[in-house]
């Protein structure tokens, strides 16, 4: 299912333009806004899932007096509107939660905790009304002896074939497939090091394979990828420099789970678990110490990176085959300490999050920061002069070729000197300008859901 097309088809035409308008900035100037105070950590401090209505749901710990006292949920609409926080759980000292959407639309958050009644376990709270209200905690542990310490684990979860798959690191990685006493529980062979932390998880859309990523400081330190369910795969050491944390993503359609890396701190590449990799690019002013992949529409993948103390972070999106990338954009992150950068781009734009301490110039406290980044088109323009028998130029014929990371961009509008034309399925639009239109001309290219693109040519 193409979630972006499904969402747009269900919305009145007059609202589509609003949905596709950037919530917080323009090209090169997207600025992050603070959402909430969270447990700043390279681990996955925020559980996140997008439901079929296009709403992005977040779940995180709440605290008071220096100790954690429950969980709160917040939602971001398909149009990028941030909702008010909802207290989902109170009076429990929880670990960092995971969040999934179950078949039928029910939301379920998972966490480890010792209950107020002194029961140690893995717990779940559910919502059947889109996160407005939440149930009392239920014990979802399989009861296996492998889970004896998982009440203290920061959980990560995904669904594969409608079944929740929980990953729980506390040295080793304990996997639980399903919920309750009938669930399958086993220890993932986390590179046989017993030192796995800062876990992330993604699903291969083509096979349903759940892939885990983590950091290791054991005999072979680095970032690892490994198939975790339904069968255990071979652990792979990610090339390049160790970055903290590893943030991975699967495609919304087609094979592949991806994790960006850098060998020199500047140039970024995007490998696939069990396959090759593609160069992403570099921004000379941005050192890549925190990197992330995020799911985009139609098989595309977003790549994001930044560093502590940098004014800007970088973002770009791949084509459908994940073989080429769009122009790199800048995000005004203004970080002092960047613990984790991550996002979701299934609707087309990237909903980007930074778990950070901002630069002192922003005068804002640490927390979770959010912004929406639109993808960016590219174009080439050729000009042919039309001449009279006497040799005078009577017209200029412009051929505008528009692409999205190499994929033809049909339906875009090219405008020059008041003349308009839409690109066809091959991404080509043709404009005819009068011979009087000599000199410099600006061609403007617009497409709902993309940054405005301008190209200057000389006639």
Q: Note the overall shape.
A: elongated
Structural class of the helix and strand makeup?
mainly beta
The chain-level mean pLDDT equals 88
CATH architecture of the largest domain: 6 Propeller
Measured by DSSP, the beta-strand proportion falls in over 45%
The count of helical stretches stands at 2
What strand order characterises the main sheet? 1-28-27-26-25-19
Q: How would you characterize the largest beta sheet? A: 6 strands, mixed
Contiguous uncertain segments of 5+ residues: 1-28
Radius of gyration: 24 Å
CATH topology of the largest domain: Neuraminidase
Our measurement of the CA-to-CA distance between the termini, rounded to an integer number of angstroms, reads 45 Å
Number of strands: 39
Helical percent range? under 10%
CATH C-level label of the largest domain: Mainly Beta
Q: How many discrete domains? A: 2
């Amino acid at each position: 299912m193409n979630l972006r097309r499904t969402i747009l088809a269900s919305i009145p035409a007059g609202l589509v333009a609003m949905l596709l308008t950037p919530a917080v900035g323009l090209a090169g100037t997207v600025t992050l806004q603070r959402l909430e105070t969270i447990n700043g950590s390279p681990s996955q401090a925020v559980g996140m899932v997008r439901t079929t209505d296009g709403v992005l749901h977040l779940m995180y710990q709440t605290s008071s007096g220096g100790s954690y006292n429950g969980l709160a949920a917040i939602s971001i609409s398909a149009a990028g509107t941030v909702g008010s926080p909802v207290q989902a759980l109170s009076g429990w000292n929880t670990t960092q939660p995971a969040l999934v959407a179950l078949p039928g639309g029910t939301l379920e958050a998972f966490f480890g905790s010792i209950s107020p009644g002194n029961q140690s376990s893995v717990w779940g709270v559910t919502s059947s009304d889109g996160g407005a209200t939440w149930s009392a905690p239920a014990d979802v542990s399989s009861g296996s002896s492998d889970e004896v310490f998982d009440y203290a684990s920061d959980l990560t979860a995904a669904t594969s074939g409608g079944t929740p798959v929980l990953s729980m690191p506390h040295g080793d990685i304990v996997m639980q497939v399903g919920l309750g006493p009938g669930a399958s529980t086993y220890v993932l062979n986390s590179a046989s090091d017993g030192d796995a932390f800062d876990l992330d998880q993604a699903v291969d859309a083509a096979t349903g394979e759940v892939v885990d990523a983590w950091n290791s400081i054991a005999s072979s330190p680095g970032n690892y990828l490994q198939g975790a369910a339904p069968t255990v795969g071979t652990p792979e050491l990610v090339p390049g420099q160790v970055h903290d944390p590893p943030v991975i993503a699967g495609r919304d359609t087609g094979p592949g789970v991806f994790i960006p890396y850098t060998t020199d701190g500047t140039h970024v590449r995007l490998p696939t678990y069990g396959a090759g990799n593609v160069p992403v690019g570099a921004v000379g002013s941005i050192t890549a110490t925190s990197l992330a992949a995020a799911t985009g529409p139609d098989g595309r993948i977003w790549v994001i990176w930044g560093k502590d103390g940098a004014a800007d972070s970088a973002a770009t999106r791949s084509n459908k085959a994940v073989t080429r990338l769009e122009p790199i954009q800048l995000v005004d992150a203004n970080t002092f300490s960047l613990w984790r950068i991550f996002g979701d781009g299934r609707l087309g734009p990237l909903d980007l999050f930074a778990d950070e301490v901002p630069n002192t110039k922003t005068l804002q406290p640490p927390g979770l920061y959010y912004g929406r980044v639109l993808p960016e088109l590219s174009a080439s323009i050729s000009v042919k002069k039309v001449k009279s028998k006497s040799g005078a130029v009577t017209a200029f014929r412009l051929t505008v070729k528009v692409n999205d990371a190499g994929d033809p961009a049909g339906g875009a509008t090219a405008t020059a000197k008041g003349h308009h034309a839409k690109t066809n399925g091959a991404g080509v639009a043709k404009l005819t300008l009068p011979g009087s239109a000599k000199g410099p001309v600006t061609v403007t290219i617009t497409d709902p859901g993309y940054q405005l693109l301008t190209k200057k040519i000389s006639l």
